[in-house]
Amino acid sequence: MDFRTRLREEIDFSGLLDKEVAARANISKRTIDSYVGSQNCMPSADIAVKLAKVLNTTVEYLMESEESQAEKNNNEQNF
Fold it and tell me: Residue 26: left (phi > 0), alpha (psi -120 to 50), or beta?
């Protein structure tokens, strides 16, 4: 799962509207739209932290790709 998909799922799960998340994170709705829309933009670190706090999740969860999760699981099995 990519950042865009995870962010969309977390926003939907929170029950907040995109504009509410944007307001709470002190960013514009247009910025949220660029992350969850077809532009597939990635946020800066400070905005990622704000979004994670608003959505009650972690930056790591939002940013982690399926490949890195699979690699992490593989490394854990090797120990």
Answer: left
Please state, in angstroms and rounded to a whole number, the distance separating the CA atoms of residues 18 and 54: 11
pTM of the model: 0.81
Residue 64, exposed/middle/buried by CB under 10 A (0-12, 13-18, 19+)? middle
Instruction: Please report, as a single letter, which amino acid is at residue 67.
Output: E
Cα 31 from Cα 17, distance rounded (Å): 14
How far is 16 from 42, CA to CA, in rounded Å? 21
Contacts of residue 7, Cβ cutoff 8 Å, sequence gap at least 6: 35, 36, 51, 55, 62
Q: pLDDT tens, 9-49?
A: 999 999 999 999 999 999 999 999 999 998 778 999 999 99
